[in-house]
Structures are given as structure tokens and as C-alpha cells.
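Listing S7. Sequence submitted for prediction.
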Amino acid sequence: MGKGRLEAFSDGVIAIIITIMVLELKVPHHADIEGLKPLLPVFVSYALSFIYVGIYWNNHHHMLHATKSINGAIMWANLHLLFWLSLIPFVTGWMGENHFAKWPVICYGIVLIMNSIAYTILVKLLIRHHGEHSMLANAFGNDMKGKISMAIYAVAIAASFIQSWLGFALYIVVACIWFIPDRRIENKIGREEEPHIG
């Protein structure tokens, strides 16, 4: 099957997720700068989640660019990823409204690690569909970056039981790791599209 509808649907869902998140930023009732202070935790939560959703959108776009076709299993795996992405606004709002309390931060981490697992499943199904020697397989390699991220998420969730700010700080670390766009696929596409001379 062609990938066009999958890509368009995913882009639409991700756009809605970002829209829902920004709606959590309520307009202050006071006209002075003091009115913004209660919104600071909500804004910090929103900013981190916006970055995370942006990272997933960016990498999803690059991955599908290197995809030739899809099958039913890939469609369900993509829906599985979108399901976990769609929970980000909920845990973002909960965490911000409760000023990074223990359980909201733990649940935020659970949603993040489930997104990571869902993305890994999607990648593995795409590689299986295109073959172990495909451009996609060569670009991802052993995906050490993804494995390190999942390990940090697990440590962050455990740390949040002791100190929620420590867990939140580790979520920021993972976002920083991925903030610079993953160029593995982009570089691989660039090399394969270079004209061969001779």
C-alpha cells in the first residue's frame, strides 16, 4: 500500500495534539506580570511536551520519506504510536497544574517511554517490510540513541518516586539528546541520491 494517507493522517493527529496542549495555557485573570506566575509550571510542561511532539513529528517525517510502501501491521503500529502521543496533552496538563508532583511526573515518564517503545516497534516493522539491507535498516543501525533514551526514561521514572524534579530533569536530558534532528536517514538518503560518475 502507498504511504500517503498514513503520512497525512499522522500529520493531522500530531497537529491536533499540539493544539490541545496549547489550550491548557489559560489566560490570566490579572493584567499585571504577577498574573503569569501561576502559569509558569504549565508553560514549562507545555514547552517540554511541544519539543517532544516536534521531535516525533520530525523523525516520523524522515522515516516515512525513506519508506517505499506500508502494510496492515505498519498501519496498526503507527496507530499505536499515535495513541501514546495523544496522551501527552493529558499528562502535560496534569503535571503542570500540580507543579511537578510525584505521580503526574511518573505518569508523564510512563507515557514518554511508551511512545519510545511504540516508535521502536514501528521502525522494526518498517525494516522487516523493506528488508534488512534496505536504506531504512542501514540508516537506523542498532539504534543506540533510542536504547539510551529508553534507559534514561526508566531511570527517570524510578527517580521520580524519590524526587520528582530529578525525574523531570532527566526527561529534559532525553529531549536535549534528540533536539538536534536525527540525521541518520537524511544522510543516508543524501548519499544514495548522489550521482555516480564513471
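Caption to Listing S7: primary sequence and predicted C-alpha cells for the chain studied. Confidence is low (pLDDT under 50) at residues 193-198. Residues 102-130 form the longest helix (29 residues).
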